[in-house]
Amino acid sequence: xxxxxxSSRYLVKRTGEKVFLECVQDxxxxxxxxYRQDPGLGLRLIYFSYDVKMKEKGDIPEGYSVSRxxxxxxxxxxxxxxxxxxSMYLCASTLRLRxxxxxxxxxxxxxxL
Amino acid sequence: AQSVTQLxxxxxxxxxxxxxxxxxxxxxxxxxxxxxxxxxNQGLQLLxxxxxxxxxxxxxxxxxxxxxxxxxxxxLTKPSAHMSDAAEYFCAVTLGFTGGGNKLTFGTGTQLKVEx
Lengths: 113, 116
What we know:
The complex is a heterodimer. Chain A is mainly beta. Chain A has strands at about 5, 10-15, 20-25, 30-40, 40-50, 55, 65-70, 75-80, 85-95, 105, 110. Chain A is about 0% helix and about 55% strand. Chain A starts with a strand and ends with a strand. Helix content of chain B is about 0%, strand content about 55%.
C-alpha cells in the first residue's frame, strides 16, 4: 500500500521562527510536491521536485524554500514564519507527471502566532 | 495555461439522491482531468481521471464523470448518495502533452453534505 507521511499533523510556531515540514514517500517516486490548502482557495502549488536536488517554483513560492537530498524525502522550509502562512500544508508524490495519480499525505496544520 | 472552475462551494443532497458536482475547465490544448476527494482530517485521494480514450470514466465508490470537450466540462456524478460520501471534492486539470508544463491545477473545491 502506497504511503506518504508528514512529520507532524499539527504545529504551532511563533512569528519569525524557522519552520521545517518534512514529507516521506515509500513508492520510489521521482516527483514530489508541496501544496498549501486554504478555505475557498483550493490547493495551490508552492514547489515541486522532479528529482533529487532538483526543484521548480509553483504558484506561490514566496516565503518558502525546499530541500530534496534523498529521493524519498522532500522538506518545506519557512525561513521566517509569518501569520499569513498559517494554513494546511499537503505533500504529494507521483511517478509520472501529468497522467499519474498524485498520492497525498494527511497534511500538517500549521498555526503561526 | 489552464484553469478550473467548480460551481458551488457547498452542495447538499439527501441520502439516496443523485449527486452532481460541476467542473468546467479552461485549457488551450487537450487536458487531462482528475477528481480527488478529501475526507475530514485526511489528505486527498483520487476518485477518477480522464487522460485519453473513453470519455465516460468510472471511479471508486460508484462515482463517474464524463469529459465533454464541446462544453469544456468534467462533471462528477453518483446515482445514489450515501452518508459516507460527505467530503470535499476537488476537480483538477493538467495539460495533456509533453512540454505543456507539469502543474496540476486544482479547483477551489465543493463541500458535499449528505442529509438523512
